[in-house]
Amino acid sequence: MRIFKDASFNFLDGRRKAYVVSASVLSIGILAMLFNIFSIGSWVNYGVDFTGGTLVEVRVSDGVTDAEIRAALGGAQAPPVTRFGADNAYTIRAAVEEGVEVDAVAQRIRQQLDASPDIEWFEVVRTEAVGPQIGEELTRAAGLAILISFVLTLLYLAVRFEFRFGLASVIATLHDIVITLGFLALFRVEISLPTVAAVLTVIGYSLNDTIVVFDRIRENLQKKGGRREDPVKLINRSINEVLPRTVLTSGTTLAVLFSLLILGGAVIRDFTIVLILGVVIGTYSSIYVASPALVEIQKKFGTKEEAEKKKRLESRSKKKKESAIPV
Question: Which of 61, 155, 163, 297 is the most buried (most CB within 10 A)?
Answer without folding.
Answer: 297
